[in-house]
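Re-run with default settings, no changes from the original entry. Doing this only to confirm the output is reproducible before filing.
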Amino acid sequence: MSDIGVVFMTASSREEADLIARALVEKRLAACVQIVSEIRSLYWWEGRVCDESEILCMAKTTAACFADLAAEVKRLHSYAVPEIVFVPVTDATPDYRSWISEVTQ
């Protein structure tokens, strides 16, 4: 697995996204969290198709921080099963890779 990656998450509201993003950065579980404006998600849940507005968050972190990051997101999130997906970064500039590693735990 790559040593750095991007974690994709959705939140039910801007307030929830802000809460999660701030906690992840302050606890040094993510070097940066980008909060994207509203997206539309269609998905299966409890036997039916749901069509909801959500907020997309993208956290820059290390593989070593992922388990703690996921636990913190689950603790703060309103969903029973929040999206928390780590996508390894296979190529990045050395200074960017170094920055992420330096500012996370």
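The first helix runs from residue 14 to 26. The chain is about 30% helix and 40% strand.
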